[in-house]
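Morning!

As promised:
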Amino acid sequence: MKSSFLFCTVPVIFVILPATGLLLFTSGFFLTRVAIEEKSNRSVPYLSNYPETDEINFEEFTRFNRVVILVIDALRYDFVKRITRDELAIDAEFKPYHNHMRTITNLIDNYPRQAKLYKFLADPPTNTMQRIKGLTTGSLPTFVDQTSNFNSPKITEDSIIHQIYRSGRKSLFVGDDTWIDLFPDTFAETYPYPSFNVRDLHTVDAGVIKHLPPFLERGDWSLLIGHFLGVDHVGHIYGPDHSSMKNKLTQLDGVINSVVNQISDDTLLVVLGDHGMTETGDHGGDTSDETDAALFLYSPNPIFPLLMPSPILNSPIISDSVSQKNIVPTISLLLGLPIPYSNLGALIPELFLNKENPLSSLSFLSRAMLTNCLQLWRCLTHYSLLTSDISSYDMEILRIKIDSITSSHQSSNFYEINNLIAFIEKCTEFLNHSEKICQSVWARFRIERMSIGFSILIFTALLQYYITTNLYQHDNIYLGDKILLYASISYVILGLLLLMSTELTYSIKIIMVSSCMVSMSFIIYRIITSRYLIYFRESVNLFSISSLVFSIISPISLFSNSFIIREDSRIEFMLQTYNLILLFKSLSIWYTQSRDKSHIITSLFNPCLLLSLMSLTRLFHACRPEQLPCDSSIFSLHLLNLAEKSFISAFLRILLSIILLIITVDLLSWKYQISNYKCYSISLTSLYVLIIIFWLTKLLPEPPIHSSLISYYYTFSPRIVYLIAIFLICISTWNLSKHNTDFSIHYSSLCLVVWLLSCLLVGDGMTSSLALLLLYQGILSKVVSYCGSLPLFFISHYFFLLCSQFYFAIGHQFTVHSIRYEAAFTGFHGDLPSFILAGFLIGINMFAPYICNICFLPLFLLTINNELKKDTSLLQISMTTWLHILCFANIQVLCTCAAAYIHRRHLMVWNVFAPRFVYESVIYYVLVVSIFVIFSIVYRASLQINVKGNLLIKRQ
Amino acid sequence: MDLLLTEVFPMITISLLAYYFTTYSRILTSSCIISLSYLFIKSLVYFRNNSSASRAIVVRRYIHSLIVTLLAIIPIHCIFIAFGAALFENKTETLVLSFTVSILTVLPCTFSFRINYRYFISKLLLLELYSLEELDLVVQVYSVCVCVWMSAFPILLDWDKPWQKWPIPCLAGTWIGYSCSKIISFILHSMDISRKFTHRSYSLLS
């Protein structure tokens, strides 16, 4: 293909198209929300033009002194509701979960004024942590709540727990330890139990059962929360349709019975499920099985009115289903507390109607409703100031409604039932309308966006495959290729347009689908008829077969959570298979070429060395929480931590790193004759000396110098390293573009600088691993050149797997926890000039193997005597390999994306699939950026070497 | 009679023994016993086939084969460790596995091929095969290796089944591979491919 064509298409296909797809997908997948950290307080005004509301007296609403909340995780509505024969479908049997909560159903039958069962509608995402947030703050939590602290899931918004804490009362907790992560310091007393092991059905429940009775006897608290996990765990393991579910529900029924007998008259018992479960026992999504939980209210004193005021009975105000947000304002007011600031829920009207006569009941309810409306309006106006998620049109409608509410409150005569009812209906309408608006903003996966983003990614993968395989195949551009280009660009524009418009019309969907179909069928046709496939068919050998099989297996394995969790083992396994194949190949080469006994050592020794070095990388692995039991390597510990445990091992570790650092740099300088250039060798030496000094300063005790100098004690050496590194990179790049000889000297010194920078940021422990990477590459180049012609596809895939393998081997995992924030402080003392710089440093710390591999790839290709066509240049081969690697990365992105899409209701989506997807996309763009930089450097050099200006440098 | 002794009898014995020893705790022992019985049957066949040759030579070669088979356990064990088996824990289990693999792959080769590493390379890697028996052997070696390789994947899954414990899937893989090789050989025999064996190699590595 012509170079100008390539220069146009490659950036579009490898950068812009995937970016569009990813942006679209993430905008549908990760719902974001800004958390408001303001706390409700009697002094926070509701409406500036409505001063009377400042005098709202919350004590007026007090009905209870104590509330007991028993959260039964995944308690679906039909687990509790009495199901009769008639309600079942014909021929259907009673399920194991039907009719076991006898206490509740009996109470409802016998004491209708004291007990009531509601359908408790959860807002998706129906995951426990998000639900707990929703049940305590009254907001609509999304997966990514933007808060001021990124590290802990602690709730910074106002919540009912915070309100109790601020009013000086006590709240107690026993059960699932998720609550402790969310509220680390607001409970007076806690007994958390780990929720991690799904297979353990009883530990948490037994703990709650043990601690509840003493708590109930004490009575010095206002809120008692017990969280049972057994039902959820039964669902996850066996599904709801299993006899264990019956046992579990019967056990919990007994607990509820004893609590009912034990509570005092001023106590409200709330039994609720935070979400339901599907027939397979999963949850997280928005089907009715998942969202319909149960809510049961009971008090020894009558709480519900004897007779509903007749006008209300027929109005839509009273309903048997309640949104989960609604529990927050209800309980806050019933305890005489202000409603939490960011609550979006509406109170449950029935609980505010138990007064002597209908008039007083209704006026009581109307006051409570007004409080609720004003609080909600305050929250929404605050939110709309922060972001533009809520459209100004919606806000205007809400403003009109709240204005009419306040004006009618000021003007109407509230001694007439009809006025009161009209007022209450107005309030209800306002609350319902704002709830709808909020749900459309926060609580929905946007399936259209996700699928369009996904289809763009598929399209991209096909285009990338096409471009990569035809890269240097022919010089003519067919008309079809131009059409491809235009199709891709129009696709991008369409995608961007869709990104801007919020709703999709039917016609746009049709255009999208048809254009997608046309272009895809076209590309598939071109791929089938392309020469590359024929080439592939002709050269069937173990290498092409194995690399083809692996390049198919490894993306597919990303659909399974266990394969993602044990991805380090999987990649090591594949690489070892490659090594074994290389061993066989070199043995057969030896047999066909020499059959000499003395040569068998070299043919056998190097592949075996590869096998054993690859096994050595296991020493550096860190553990995911899911991989337990497993010991993280001592190399991943912080140096000072290790020194505290045993100084000797810390010392030995740092000694090993120093030796490996010096040996690697000197060996490579000697190999590529860098020492010919004094400038390079001196600065490289000073670089590693400074890095060693930096490590030693961390190990040695702080010197007794003046405090302002102390910061420089830790930062001076990394800063000088940065300066020298930038200087060296500039010099070598300039040399590469000026001098037409010694490509390998300048280029290898550039690579070494990058490697040394990664060593500095990766830290002393993992430097050994990076040195192992270079050693491994050196031996690999020997083996590959001994084996003769290997398909480039194989080499690219080998390198791609090598990148991932060494990602694990510098102690990282694809989890949020494994990000090492301390890397941002190498050379800076907590006063980082910008977040971009911090992100850059952390990025190098994480993706050092990827960057190093991409840099060293041209050197690797120089050293192997690849038997591709004689007229190909280094630039061509490296470009093809890089693009192959990008293709593999993009297919991985596609598959992680699809896995996140398919498993969006899976138990582990937020622990396993979503982080994997994010990491894979970041890796893709790290690869793109580093390839772009290195390509432009090599390209400049190639311009110098070949005056004609083709994309060629003759290989040395 | 020949087919009965070499193919059908081992298969029946193996399946009977495997059925008898399905208890989880005895699975390693049973694997060893099955391997040894395989060894025993192979030895019987070996002595019967070579009954015409000199007694001393036959016995010497037999012992030689056994030694090679036992020695081959070491590299096979190393390869398992390289592929992810633990270095220090579960040593016995890995050893049993490598013993089984060695019995199923190296032993029949030593009985049939010349005991020489060059010969092994030429037969196994370059596939310079001249007879149907050699083809059968190579099929057996490859199918056992591929099945052991593939059976490592279920170990990673988080189903928490007792049979996922190392090295049970791989042990099963060896025997599945062995059975597959018999089926493949049968198909190859019935296809009458012996005509195609002109003196050329079919190397996959070229």
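The CA atoms of residues 47 and 194 of chain B lie 26 Å apart.

Hope this helps with the figure draft.
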